Amino acid sequence: MPAVLSPKAATDKTDKSIHLQGNASRLMVELRSAAKTYLNGYKALLDVNLEVKQGEFLFITGPSGSGKSTLLKLLYGQELPTQGEVIVDGCNVGTLRGDRLSLFRRRIGIVFQDYKLIPQRTVAENVTVVLQAQGYTRKEIQRRLEATLKLVGLFAKGDCFPEQLSGGEQQRVSIARAIVATPPLLLVDEPTGNLDPDNSWQVMQILQKLNSFGATVIVTTHDEQLVRRCNHRVIQVRNGRLYKISA
Fold first, then answer.
1. By residue range, what is the domain housing residue 68?
2. 17 lies in a domain?
3. Using an 8 Å Cβ cutoff, are 208 and 186 in contact?
4. CA angle (184, 130, 152) in 5-degree steps
């Protein structure tokens, strides 16, 4: 697994020399003639070929129902390809089952459009549930929690419950949960779909900052204005096929 800057290092403003080098030519994601047909016969993706290098920021755009979310689901193994191969961080995702799939998913941060926060748990508890499941020590959990909440601007909200937060704050909690274990790959599904322009830009700035620390970031979105503002590589999904928009 490639090294990724820890939240503690990422938020240390006294160290100006921190840079993640990594292998810029290494592929983090590779889809080889991948396709997905559901049991009802619906062809969500057709003969998809895609390469994403380590440390890259990629936007996937397209209208609702075009296959964007299905593509992300293939990357973390929620859906399996009916044809072709999906290679993520050196693993053939389509061959993983059970414990092997669970261990693989620990290496990926996933941010959902509907946040998927646990309403009965505080912000801190929602974020640290990932670390507890992975057996981190209490001291390490606290260190990572504090650094991550600072990074997403929610350090003062750790004791709040999701219902006490705005939509933008809930999305930032979802991001914090996804990155607290410092995964090398971050998959983000329509992160600004429910947010106003100001909150949308704040969320996007956090994602770009994480990318600058070395994480590979893949974002699905239909917000073309936001995509143009960020100036990263863009591909579009239309009728299950990929089209290059910008390099």
1. 27-246
2. no
3. no
4. 65
Residue among 216, 185, 22 at smallest CA distance from 104 = 185
Instruction: From residue 112, give the alpha-carbon distance in Å to each of 63, 69, 146, 176, 189.
Output: 17, 10, 22, 12, 5
* Alpha carbon distance 99, 114 (integer Å): 26
Residue 154, in any domain of the structure: yes
In a domain, 65, yes or no: yes
Give the closest residue to 224 by CA, choosing from 197, 185, 186: 197
Strands (E), the chain: 27-37, 43-53, 57-61, 83-88, 91-92, 108-111, 185-189, 216-220, 233-238, 241-246
The answer to whether residue 7 is domain-embedded is: no
The model's pLDDT over 130-180, given as tens digits with 9 standing for 90+, comes to 999 899 999 999 999 999 999 999 999 999 999 999 999 999 999 999 999
CA-based Rg of the chain, rounded to a whole angstrom? 18
The angle, 0 to 180 degrees and rounded to 10, between the axes of the packed helices 167-179 and 123-133 is 20
Nearest CA to 35 out of 24, 53, 49 is that of 49
Q: Residue 212 sits in a domain of what CATH number?
A: 3.40.50.300
For the entire predicted model, the pTM comes to 0.87
User: 179 near 158, Cβ under 8 Å?
Assistant: no
